[in-house]
Amino acid sequence: MNGTVKVFSTEKGKFTEFRDCAGGEGPFRGLAVYGSSLITCVESGLLKVWKEGSSDHAEVKVGGGVCRMRQDPGRPERVGTGGKENELKVWDLQRPQEPVFTAKNVRNDWLDLRVPVWMRDMQFIPSTDKIVTCTAHGQVRVYDPSSPQRRPVLEMTYEEYPLTALSLTADGNSVVVGNTHGQMAVLDLRKGRLQKCLKGQAGSLRSIQCHASLPLVASCGLDRFLRIHNTADKRLQHKVYLKSRLNCLLFTSRENWEEEDVELATEGGVKEEEDEIWASMAMVTDGTRSKRERDPRETPDSQKRLKKTIKDSSV
Questions:
Q1: Mean pLDDT of 257-286
Q2: Which parts of the chain fold into alpha helices (H)?
Q3: Which domains does the chain have, with CATH numbers?
Q4: I need a surface site. Which of 56, 89, 119, 123 has the fewest CB within 10 A?
Q5: What are the two backbone dihedrals, phi and then psi, of residue 278, each rounded to the nearest 5 degrees?
Q6: DSSP readout, 188-202?
Q7: What was the pLDDT predicted at 309?
Q8: What are phi and psi of 299, to 5 degrees?
Q9: Burial of 181 (0-12, 13-18, 19+ CB in 10 A)
């Protein structure tokens, strides 16, 4: 909230860098890395490229009410922005004077009323120029900047509640969306229809992430649970309670994390075996004991009193 960007090292387990990226008003709505530079965008619409070791930072005004800024993974010099009454725009950071694409609102509804604009999330479709977005009015739209049409080339509606997050599946042919009532579904981007619903959520969804190669999707939200569904058979495979309200999640990019866990588990097993061996060994003690350590029944006086007690009780 104060404009500070922290760099956390997962290898060292601590923050290694702090950068002051204050500017504009409102919280961050997007953060990306472009070479050695940072790209930030705040709610008021100020997008800045923070060049490392330089005080000359590029600024772009993308319009107020920004809800999301995302980077194109195939072309990292391009970013997309949009929000409340702020249509989708695609910017080329090498030529930031004007957007390379500006979407146009859909036609008026059947009452000839203007359709409100409120884009909540977006993502670039890999290996294409297309962009998929979701809105606070339950619409999922696909734009194609390479075509002369500025309006969406595909539009779907899912339920009536605001959509809050989306994520493309591994093949790029479907998108998983979630709304404020905990409803999550898989939509087909080729046919423009609902494929399946993923059940189990109990609160507003804030983040959805599909696995890069497996048919898995992870979701989290205000019900404090992390859930992992299988998009092939719709089953809930894992459910973990994480105590606090959750806003974001990511899959790890390490491919050999299972092998690393096995190595750690093997080392832990060896240590446990050593502890068991030490625990099973008998304690070697000295045969001589002091008078205080002796059992009081072993003294001559105590033995006489014990005999007298047995004799009296028999009588």
A1: 67
A2: 257-280, 300-314
A3: 1-76 (no CATH), 103-261 (2.130.10.10)
A4: 56
A5: -65, -35
A6: ETTTTEEEEEE----
A7: 61
A8: -75, 155
A9: middle
